[in-house]
Amino acid sequence: AKGGGMGDISASLIRYLQESGDYELHIVLPKYDNKIRNIAKFTNKQLDRLAIILSGKGIHLVNDSAFSYINDPYEDNKLHSRVRRALVFQRFIINDLLDWIQPDVVHCNDWMTALVPAAAKSKGIKSLFTLHNIFTEKQTLMNIELSGLKPLEFAEHLYFEKFPENITQNWQKHFSTNRVDFTASGILACDYFNTVSETFLKELINNYYPDIVPTSIYQTIKDKYDQGRAVGILNAPNDTVNPKIMPHIINFNKHTMPQKKAENKALFQKKMGLPLQPEVPLFFWPNRLYFQKAPDLLLDNLQYFIEKYKFQLAVVANGDTKYENQIKKMAAKYPNVAYRSFQENLSNLGKAGSDFILMPSRYEPCGLPQMEVLRFGTLPIVRSTGGLKDTIQHLDFEKSKGNGFVFLMADRQGLEYGISEALKFYKQPKEIKIRELRRIMSSSKRQFSLKNTAQKYMKIYSQLISEK
């Protein structure tokens, strides 16, 4: 069920909390039958047996036809609606699991679980709501009820487009017309709220993105912050993101990095169909091709950049069709540009073998690739926003400070500054580059620690439990 950075950090946090031994954890995931069968070659009976075994270990797979035939968790159409999947998922938690296990705290993530804090509040259960992205969905009480939920039991804690004074007394007026804002409801009803970086929280409460962030989300976050119930907690990469042990790359450490990283670069170039040119700087795009990530900022100017700076570009990503088609056209035109659909193993090889990654995001709640690649001696080029601002400082190789290349404006001039600064470093003498890359590799794992992230969440859990 993993999808993007939220899946990565959730899995890592769960593992750390389990190892701490201080918590009894219950984890809820969709049961994507097709995906599990494709990976493990289970029969239906074996899969059902697995679900029973996992439930006994506190891992609850939500079994419903809404998930059974899905191959892509992002799939959204009339037959396989993401809203339906979200409602079915929450139905199991709200109708069954909360009463069954009676948790002290329920920790919810993003719009897909955003009705749960309201239901938890109605049952006297504390909740933490974590925002990984600013997307939301809206549905009427009628549609929510048709999914099998009983929203009138917790309607007073929901956020409505047209906020009624007494929803429980006048529900007939609102049942089929007044839509519930999922994300805003999660923020409104939760007992504590967090974003996944400090700067992103500051940007939200200061309304940096009025054309992107809905007023409902801005206002509920600001209210939570003013109540002293909102904080930014930076994500961190999993400890398994390690060039010494990561599978499907040529493993290395900071001492063997110069030679082995060059071998990874050659292997990545080969797999991508790029010319095997060790001296040419290799740039890698590590994110999905969505508006938020600003792929158009690169693609609309790619001809100019390629012809002027003569670098190689590798893109291993899925996303909006218009961006996929655009990069495919550029790859057909330029031998130094290559595109492949997302494959995790190939993407990891790109992080290990590339010289630089590109992250020019319009906004970025946190981001993990910019932290991950530092462990491989690959340097990020980022726009100064959200979690990118919190994690990457502009490299001053003369003073041995910084760990990447930062630009401010989301335009061609801004991105060109980041690229040109990276290439300035690339042209330095070999001993300077090796010195800086080894320094950055050593410091990055200490600086971005999953232990620190988990301890901050544990502090909130303890606070919420003490307030019961």
Strand share of the residues?
Answer: 5-15%
CATH architecture of the largest domain: 3-Layer(aba) Sandwich
* Largest sheet: number of strands, sense, barrel closure: 6 strands, parallel
| Total domain modules | 2
Number of helices: 21
- The backbone outline, from C-alpha atoms, is globular
| CATH topology value of the largest domain | Rossmann fold
> Alpha-carbon distance between the termini?
32 Å
Helix/strand-derived category reads: alpha/beta
User: Would you identify the regions where 5 or more consecutive residues have pLDDT less than 50?
Assistant: none
Chain-averaged pLDDT: 93
Number of strands: 14
- Oligomeric status: single chain
Integer-rounded radius of gyration: 23 Å
CATH class bucket of the largest domain = Alpha Beta
Share of helix among residues?
40-55%
CATH superfamily of the largest domain, by name, is: Glycogen Phosphorylase B
Q: State the strand order across the main sheet.
A: 11-10-9-12-13-14
Could you walk me through the main structural features you see in this protein, from its secondary elements to its overall organization?
The protein is of the alpha/beta class. It has two domains: 248 residues, Rossmann fold (3-Layer(aba) Sandwich), CATH 3.40.50.2000; 192 residues, Glycogen Phosphorylase B (Rossmann fold, 3-Layer(aba) Sandwich), CATH 3.40.50.2000. It has 21 helices and 14 strands. The strands form four sheets. The protein has a six-stranded parallel beta sheet, with helices on both faces. A four-stranded parallel beta sheet has the order 3-4-7-8. It has a two-stranded parallel sheet with strand order 1-2. Helix 6 links the parallel strand 3 and strand 4. Helix 9 runs parallel beside helix 11. The longest helix has 20 residues.
